[in-house]
Write a structure and sequence with these properties.
The structure holds 2 protein chains of 2 kinds. Chain A is α+β, with helices and mostly antiparallel strands. Chain A has helices at 29-38, 67-70, 88-93, 104-107, 116-120, 157-160, 164-167, 171-180, 196-200, 227-231, 253-257, 263-266, 282-289, 297-304, 311-319, 324-331, 334-341, 365-373, 381-390, 392-402, 407-428, 435-440, 445-457, 460-463, and strands at residues 11-20, 51-55, 74-77, 80-83, 111-113, 132-134, 183-187, 206-209, 215-217, 237-240, 245-248, 273-281, 346-347, 358-361. Helices cover 33% and strands 12% of the residues of chain A. In chain A, the strands form 6 sheets. Chain A has a 4-stranded mixed β-sheet with strand order 12-1-14-13. A two-stranded antiparallel sheet of chain A has the order 2-7. In chain B, helix 2 (46-71) packs antiparallel against helix 4 (84-115) and helix 4 (84-115) runs antiparallel to helix 6. The longest helix of chain B is centred in the middle third of the chain and has 32 residues, at 84-115. Chain B is globular, with a radius of gyration of 20 Å. Classes of the chains: A alpha+beta, B mainly alpha. Strand 8 (206-209) of chain A pairs parallel with strand 1 (221-222) of chain B, so a sheet runs across the interface.
Chain lengths: 549, 238
């Protein structure tokens, strides 16, 4: 064993995500495409498996990070890891009314508009309006909150001041911060290694998939006890009030199984999301999550991850039933590179002790912007490194988000990003390369260039390295088709005239042939463009050419 | 003793029981997705946090009371030298309190279902059938308990309980129930109606009480593709 590391215990694979916050422009494309894919149904109007929140800000649901109130995640009790909302007996005692469940007002009351009024209002002097109607009870309502209500601080200082992360920083810092910085934080389910939502589910309906680590809800076993909603500290499990079942981000598993990125990643215009495999030692997770010092949790989680380049790890992985192409994918994983090799990605709220697996590259732009505003050259190495150190405010805030308040890893990550910026600036300006810049952050020039390629060029094939699915029981990749292909599943409509494949047009001259309309296209030959993959020219796309009569 | 009594106390219980078992099995087979509490806590939580625990906890005590009153024969408590007055005082105090709590809890829950627009909008047709029957069963049972306050109360342990136990030996003692006071008979009839509604309403969630949670490891791992859905078609029932 070349690295002299201890033999890994139980090797498991996890499909994980990294988001580069420097590139997020807060356009909400991820949220909208996710919603169109997963939660555009009755009962999930208020649910956003993916949401983008402005920081500082309260988030969605509002103040979800206030764990004194919602009691999500885990806590250490006499050295033992227990859900913060209490052990098994306490949970069953609270079965009939969950005291820590957010109400709809903590999210927002979903609404639609009474568009019919636009055309049906009686004739009058005033232009008719489309008044808002609640999608919950159908009554007229005044809109007072939404999923991104404090977008770009739209809610004003009153909203921002209630940010639970800001509350941890001192008052003076808060005031300054509100004037100085703003960035976006896109959030999906963290697909944690130690998921507290799974732990608190009384029915055992929630589970972590062995093959890829995706955390899912078995809809047939969920009984609607709602404990997962409060148990998740990120509030990323939602209660479908129409079906009475919990639903959550699925990491678009039907796409992941086919080797494709999630919908939020695929449609991200900033190309800031990375998907890849991480190999980890499942035997170390419990110990790592029970580290006494909250600020040690980031390092402890890093210690669970295995180096796929290590032959010993690769051998142990294949012995554990992980296919060869998954180990290969783990070696090329952009997520592993950003988290373990370059150490620029950090976990969101490790202090919840759930071992989250969606990590973030902290934003350097606020620092550069602040520097430029003060008249300095925002990208000159000497001023930029100095600014990261002296601009304590964003550092403290970012540290509260990503490292339980320890500014050192955040500072190190920002310095590596700054080194990348200044190194590439020298390249662009045709100046002599300065290897000292890379050396000062503990990297080589080659590593800086590789990181630049991954973060700045961000090629599609390098951002998403996803092997196709396998079943661990059989140990070999199997093609079982789309997991959602079943009667009544999402996107599986009842066959009717509109959704079936274009039927052959009736033979001319038969008695049953309908009278052809002037365009020559009959309704039976209509094409549903939603089912078109964009390749070729399907039948029925254009009206049929009328032959000479 | 006539044909009506035979039908009501000799035949009907078995019909109700068959519907309860077969209906639940059928629903579990074809609508496992429908086994849920269909909670409305998301819409309204203040009244629920009082009414929900009051109703459910009261109901568990009521259930325990029925087990003691119907299943334990009088000879057993006599052999254990439990005095008659103590037994009935206990039944009246504990049973009466639990019954009152259950009725009060149900009243709060029904009130919020009618008055909170969001909860009202989430009410299904099966709820509309279940709530009146449930309320009637509870009120009748409470009234029957109250009759034991009379000077010479009806001893249900000599009548109703004998009939109930005889059902399980497949030799129903119709006479024992036929001579019971009307309020007991009505309570039993309404209870049978409730049991027939049970599989087809949200009441099925009672059969999925998560007792196994107490013995389960916290984190559940599953293989991809394990536990595939049993039924090809899903329909919503209840």
């Amino acid at each position: 064993m070349p690295r002299g590391e201890a033999t890994p215990g139980r090797v498991m694979a996890q499909v994980a995500m990294v988001m580069n916050l420097d590139k997020c422009i807060g356009c909400h494309t991820c949220s909208v495409t996710c919603k169109q894919t997963w939660t555009n149904r009755t009962g999930t109007e208020y649910a956003w498996f993916n949401n983008v929140e402005t920081r500082p800000g309260q988030g969605y649901p509002r103040r979800y990070e206030d764990q004194d109130r919602w009691r999500g995640g885990w806590e250490l009790k006499r050295g033992r890891l227990v859900p913060r909302s209490g052990g098994r007996a306490r949970r069953l005692a609270r079965l009939f009314a969950n005291p820590e469940l957010p109400t709809l007002d903590d999210y927002y009351e979903p609404w639609t508009y009474d568009y019919a009024n636009l055309t049906q209002a009686p004739l009058g002097d005033d232009l008719p309006t489309a008044p808002p109607r609640s999608q919950i009870d159908g009554r007229a309502m005044a809109i007072s909150a939404g999923p991104n209500w404090d977008d770009d601080l739209g809610g004003g200082p009153g909203h921002t001041a209630a940010d639970p992360v800001l509350e941890k920083i001192s008052d003076q810092v808060r005031l300054e911060y509100e004037q100085a910085f703003m960035f976006y934080l896109p959030r999906i389910c963290e697909h944690c290694l130690n998921p507290s939502c799974v732990a608190v589910c009384p029915s055992g309906a929630m589970y972590k998939r062995i093959e890829d680590g995706i955390v899912l809800v078995d809809q047939d076993r969920c009984r609607g006890w709602r404990m997962c909603v409060s148990g998740c500290p990120y509030k990323k499990v939602y209660f479908n009030h129409a079906t009475g079942k919990a639903e959550k981000c699925t990491l678009c598993y039907p796409r992941i199984e086919a080797g494709e990125p999630t919908v939020c990643s695929e449609t991200c215009v900033g190309r800031l999301r990375y998907l890849g495999v991480i190999l980890y030692d499942a035997d170390r997770v419990g110990e790592a999550a029970s580290v006494e010092d909250e600020q040690g949790l980031y390092e402890a989680q890093l210690g669970c991850f295995l180096d796929p380049a290590d032959p010993g790890v690769a051998r142990a992985a294949e012995e554990a039933g992980i296919p060869h192409d998954w180990v290969t994918a783990a070696r090329e994983s952009p997520v592993h590179a950003l988290i373990s090799r370059y150490r620029v990605a950090l976990p969101l709220h490790p202090e919840y002790r759930t071992m989250p697996m969606v990590w973030y590259v902290p934003p350097l732009s606020p620092v550069v912007d602040a520097l430029t505003r003060t008249g300095h050259d925002g990208e000159a190495p000497e001023s930029l490194f100095g600014a990261i150190d002296t601009l304590r405010i964003p550092l403290a805030y970012l540290a509260e988000l990503f490292t339980a308040g320890d500014t050192e890893p955040v500072e190190a990550a920002l310095c590596r990003l700054a080194a990348m910026r200044t190194t590439m600036r020298r390249v662009n300006l045709g100046q002599e390369p300065d290897p000292d810049i890379a050396r000062s952050v503990g990297m080589t020039e080659e590593e800086i260039h590789a990181m630049y390629r991954l973060l700045a060029l961000a090629k599609y094939e390098e951002r998403y390295v996803i092997p196709t699915s396998y079943t661990a029981e059989h140990g070999s990749p199997v093609d079982t088709g789309c997991s959602l292909e079943e009667a009544g599943g999402p996107g599986m409509y009842d066959p009717d005239g509109f959704h079936t494949a274009p039927a052959a047009p009736p033979a001319p001259g038969t008695a049953t042939a309908p009278a052809t309309d002037p365009s020559g296209a009959s309704l039976a030959g209509r094409l549903n463009l939603l089912n078109w993959d964009g390749r070729g020219r399907p039948d029925g796309l254009f009206p049929r050419q009328e032959g000479p009569a | 003793m006539n044909h009506l009594h035979t039908a009501l106390w000799g035949v009907l219980p078995y019909l109700a029981f068959t519907l309860l078992v077969a209906g639940t099995a059928w629903r579990y087979r074809y609508d496992r997705f429908g086994f849920t509490t269909r909670s409305s806590q998301l819409h309204e939580h203040r009244l629920l946090s009082i009414g929900g625990p009051l109703f459910h906890a009261g109901l568990l005590f009521v259930l325990a009371g029925h087990v003691v009153g119907l299943v334990v024969p009088k000879s057993l408590t006599e052999r254990m030298h439990v005095p008659e007055w103590l037994y009935h005082l206990n039944a009246l105090a504990v049973g009466g309190t639990a019954g009152l709590a259950t009725v009060a809890g149900l009243a709060i829950l029904v009130h919020r279902r009618l008055r909170s627009p969001a909860v009202r909008a989430a009410t299904s047709r099966s709820d509309l059938a279940v709530y009146p029957v449930l309320a009637a069963v509870l009120v009748c049972g409470l009234a029957a308990t109250a009759t034991t306050l009379e000077a010479h109360p009806y001893d249900y342990r000599e009548g109703v309980a004998v009939w109930f136990r005889s059902l399980f030996t497949l030799d129903p003692d119709v006479a024992a129930m036929a001579h019971a006071p009307f309020v007991y008979q009505l309570h039993a009839l309404l209870a049978m109606a409730l049991f027939t509604l049970w599989p087809f309403s949200r009441l099925v969630h009672a059969f999925t009480a998560p007792v196994a949670y107490l013995a389960r490891p916290y984190i559940v791992y599953r293989h991809r593709g394990s536990g595939t859905r049993p039924a090809p078609q899903h329909r919503r029932i209840g």
